[in-house]
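hi! just following up on the protien thing from before. the input was this:
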Amino acid sequence: METYGLIGFPLKHSFSARFFNEKFAREKIDAEYLNFEIADITELRRVILFNPSLRGLNVTIPYKEQVIPFLDERSPEAEEIGAVNVIRVDRLPGEMYTYKLTGYNTDYIGFRESLRPLLRYEIHTHALILGTGGASKAVAQALTELQIKWKLVSRTPAEGRYSYDELTPGIIASHKLIVNASPVGTYPDIDHCPAIPYDALTPDHLLYDLVYNPEET
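and the predicted 3d structure came back as:
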């Protein structure tokens, strides 16, 4: 049996294990999917060594960028984006302690292709990306490919980005696409929401939330 899994911290919000294990059972795939909740990215080596049947990992908050120094290779997309959400684990036959880790980024493909049919290109020309972590990098890459200009929004002021306190009705009006690439609103904190001026939103605005648990945010 092959093993796949998810690394991140915390993982109480994730239903990846249930999703994949149900899929494996339904499609009669001889594999299992485990959650590896690690408090520090340096624990990755222990996860790999103690699970000799491990063949691949998904990566979630907060390790999409932190994991990069532990990889042997990255796909061109992961190199350009600067974040990884999938790791392939290759082992030499019969070798438990010798392995190769290759990082990929599939986040931006999923985001780009799910966003594309929702866009009104004459209106959604400028976007705000809420959050500055690994997910925001994938969003930025996708928006660039879609020729949508974007700005990051973070909790603290920095050059080239907005802070939440700087989001005026005028800024909201000129950015008709808003993407939440932060963990705000993720289970169990489902009553939380990004601190933007919601009263400035119009029917022309498109809001896209990367949070998937709960299903409705």
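Residues 21 and 27 are 10 Å apart (CA to CA).
The longest strand covers residues 2-8.
cheers
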